[in-house]
Design a protein that fits this description.
Blueprint lengths: L7 E3 L10 E3 L3 E6 L14 H5 L1 H10 L5 E2 H4 L3 H17 L4 E7 L3 E4 L3 E2 L11 H10 L2 H9 L4 E5 L2 H7 L10 E7 L12 E7 L1 H7 L6 H15 L2 H8 L3 H5 L2 H6 L18 E3 L1 H7 L5 E3 L5 E3 L13 E5 L4 E2 L21 E2 H4 L7 E5 H5 L2 H10 L1 H5 L4 E5 L15 H11 L3 E3 L14 H22 L5 E6 L4 H14 L3 E4 L7 H12 L7 E4 L8 H6 L4 E3 L2 H8 L5 E2 L5 E2 L2 E2 L6 H8 L5 H19 L5 H12 L12 H21 L1 H4 L3 H6 L5 E2 L1 H27 L1
Parallel strand pairs: 3-5, 3-8, 8-9, 9-10, 10-11, 14-17, 14-23, 17-18, 18-19, 19-20, 20-21, 21-22, 22-23, 26-27
Antiparallel strand pairs: 1-2, 4-7, 5-6, 12-13, 15-16, 24-25
Helix pairs in contact: 4-9, 5-7, 20-21, 23-30, 25-26, 26-27
The structure holds zinc ion (ZN).
């Protein structure tokens, strides 16, 4: 810590003479320009004016009557609230209390006294490339590094594109603390430097929490902070030393309860720390007296609820298998399968592509087996492990959704047990009958419930009679927490060590949690619980706490081609739309040609141009706008005709929507950041929505991402 005597103030709030003088950090606020300005003359400056110094001079002269200091030019909500905060601090602590610099997309980094004229330039409407280029011209990175040097505590209130323009990290001197107030999308631009950094990530959740709109929230929170500082001047020093406290100080409740800072609440902050993301909700959990803990789902469990009795058994991810194979010799340039390829013998599963499987196990439903005679024959001959070419654990079930309409399941217990045994499953699930939708009506549900329990009882009895290698799993259906809990209790009494809860794949997480809370009380240290069809990463910690040991989900895989927008997933949770470039032989294209909307020849040309452009973009040889032009030219003709006609408005709407999504994809180029085998091998092909070999591989990538994130959650929890 520095020892300049002028830098110490009498805090007045401590009795100990030693603590009477506290380090007084120099404070800087960095904020962005806003679209709303005090003057909006028609001839205000445009970007082009700033690109030419002579033009800038003459054009500025035309606007002389509007010249004013930067600090007074902006009238957007963020700026106004921020200025109120700054003036509160200055009233209490003098004009020197805090300095302000503004990041203007037109002028670069400017002081609040700098005189400027009205302009209409913002980073928000620029492409990322334009931001990068223009930020370099404006010298923003170096300026930011230079202008922040002399300050101890720096607040950065910048949105995504403005933050990008800083090109972090910058070199800081030791002993600086930086607090970023920003949004989720900005995370990728926050790079650690040798300062104490924290980031407060603001979203609509925080906006709601503070009762202030997202636009302007950064300024609003700074003002709240200023108000707190005025009540207790020592806060500045404390926040400088422990930036994490910032979130506590601006929290309404913390102020109310007057529990601002108690040192024993502090987790020691290392001097060099990576950017931390403070989740305000999580913070609330830590605050005194809340007595609840919350997960990212917003669902809370009481603090005194211990982890379930079976917690030590861990939690695992199974993937349902449905012939998810691809041609390993697929030629992406000619779009052709390997010659003489056999779709079973030659094609490969995801676990044959990756060095390690992206799941802890596989779930195979009987309905997949029943689909073709040829298939069931091979399965019986080879056994399920050889059939799927997977040596890990495989669970078999009946696939209750396939017979939901029937009064009774089409299988008998003995027959199913023999099937599990012959095919060589590691786990076999008893025959259940779904209680969902119209089948959850009183009268029907009790019948299905009783039938499911009866089957489970038969199942474990039959299983105990023979020499079966597979572990029996009792399937439970229900319609309320109590009905599930009652069944689980009786299954444990029947001798089950593994119980699967069904019928909740589409239930809201809150409902599943209620069911689990009811089930929780019956669990023993050796009971395992499986959830059918529930793969929700944000709920994994709470599920695990309440006793879930496994779940299955094909959703990351299938979203690659079934989701309208979220086709390519990433580690940050951000998802992207894949670029739709259908093949000229596809059904859609045939329909369009048949309706006479465009000739096959035209479509083929546009298709080829779209593919070629995307590949050239990937190689860095084509700009985003040109690439998008090629993509949208094809896309515009892809609206399906209705009654032989295409609705031009719909087609344009569709194209515009796609153009927006594709722009984001091209700007971020997420496939270049992924080190998984599929992305490394395929490159840009993985983000093209086109045929099984790209789409399913993209699904494999999504599964990889899901599993990495899942494992990351577990590492954090243990
Ligand atoms: Zn990947």
């Amino acid at each position: 810590m520095q020892t300049d005597p002028k830098r110490y103030v009498n805090s007045g709030s401590f009795t100990s003479p030693l603590e009477n003088f506290m380090f007084d950090p120099r404070i800087l606020v960095v904020t962005s320009c806003t679209g709303e300005k005090r003057f909006k003359p028609e001839n205000q400056l445009q970007l082009d004016d700033f690109k030419n110094p002579e033009l800038l001079q003459s054009r500025s002269a035309e606007l002389a009557e509007y010249i004013c200091p930067a600090g007074q030019m902006y009238t957007g909500a963020q700026h106004l609230r921020l200025m109120e905060g700054i003036s509160i601090l200055r009233q209490a602590r003098g004009a020197e209390a805090v300095d302000l610099i503004i990041l203007s997309a037109a002028y670069g980094l400017i002081g609040e006294e700098e005189k400027i004229v009205p302009y209409e330039v913002t980073f928000n409407t620029m492409t990322s490339e334009e931001v990068d280029r223009w930020a370099t011209t404006l010298n923003i990175h170096l300026d930011f590094e230079k202008k922040t040097q002399e300050y101890d505590l720096i607040f950065v209130l910048l949105g995504e594109q403005y933050l990008r323009s800083l090109k972090l990290p910058v070199n800081h001197r030791d002993g600086q603390s930086t607090i970023f107030l920003t949004s989720t999308g900005s995370l990728k631009y926050l790079k650690a430097s040798q300062t104490k950094n924290i980031a407060l990530i603001l979203s609509n959740i925080q906006a709601k929490h503070y009762g202030y709109g997202l636009v302007g929230l950064k300024g609003f929170l700074f003002k709240k902070f200023a108000e707190a500082v005025v009540r207790d001047l020592t806060i500045l020093t404390k926040v400088y030393e422990h930036p994490k406290l910032f979130s506590q100080i601006i929290d309404n409740r913390a102020i109310q309860l007057n529990i601002l800072i108690k040192d024993d609440d502090l987790v020691a902050t290392p001097t060099i720390e990576l950017i931390r993301v403070i989740d305000l909700k999580q913070y609330q959990n830590n605050s005194i007296g809340s007595g609840r803990s919350e997960t990212a789902t917003g669902i809370s469990i009481p603090d005194d609820l211990q982890p379930s009795a079976n917690y030590a058994l861990g939690i695992q991810y199974f993937i349902p298998e449905w012939d998810d194979r691809v041609d390993p010799r697929y030629n992406f340039i000619d779009d052709k399968n390997a010659v003489n390829r056999d779709t079973y013998d030659d094609d490969v599963y995801a676990h044959q592509i990756y060095d390690r499987p992206n799941y802890n196990g596989i779930l195979l439903s009987r309905v997949v087996f029943d689909k073709s005679k040829k298939k069931s024959k091979i399965l019986l001959e080879k056994g399920v492990h050889d059939y799927i070419r997977y040596s890990g654990q495989i669970m078999g079930d009946c696939g209750a959704f396939s017979y939901i309409q029937e009064d009774k399941p089409p299988y008998q217990t003995k027959e199913i047990i023999d099937y599990y045994h012959q095919v060589g499953f590691d786990y076999g699930v008893s025959i259940d009958h779904l209680i969902v939708g119209g089948f959850a009506k009183p009268g029907i549900r009790e019948e299905r419930y009783a039938l499911t329990i009866k089957n489970a009882e038969e199942f474990i009895q039959e299983h105990s009679k023979g020499e079966y290698k597979f572990t029996p799993i009792g399937a439970v259906q229900g319609w309320s927490p109590e009905s599930y809990a009652t069944a689980v209790k009786s299954y444990i009494e029947m001798g089950y060590k593994y119980i699967a809860l069904g019928g909740i794949a589409r239930a809201p997480t809150a409902e599943i949690v209620e069911i689990l809370q009811a089930v929780y009380h019956h669990l023993t240290p050796t009971t395992k619980i499986h959830l059918f069809g529930v793969g929700r990463l944000n709920a994994v910690p709470i599920f695990r706490h309440l006793g879930v040991n496994s779940f299955d989900s094909a959703s990351p895989l299938r979203k690659a081609w079934l989701d309208p927008t979220a086709n390519y997933h990433t580690m940050s949770g951000k998802t992207y739309a894949a670029v739709r470039i259908p093949k000229s032989g596809s059904l859609r294209i045939n329909n369009i040609v048949k309706a006479g909307i465009a000739s096959l020849e035209t479509l083929k040309q546009l298709e080829e141009k779209a593919l070629a452009s995307l590949r050239r973009f990937d190689e860095g040889r084509l700009a985003i706008d040109e690439t998008l032009d090629a993509l949208t030219a094809y896309d515009l003709l892809l609206e399906l005709p209705r009654a032989g006609k295409v609705d031009a408005i719909q087609a344009t709407k569709r194209m515009n929507k796609h153009a927006q999504m594709y722009r984001v994809l091209l700007e971020d180029r997420p496939w270049k950041d992924c080190g998984c085998k599929v992305c490394v091998d395929l490159g840009v092909e993985v983000v093209i929505f086109r045929g099984n070999d790209r789409n399913r591989r993209r699904g494999f990538h999504n599964t990889y991402v899901f599993n990495q994130r899942f494992k990351g959650l577990l590492n954090n929890a243990d």
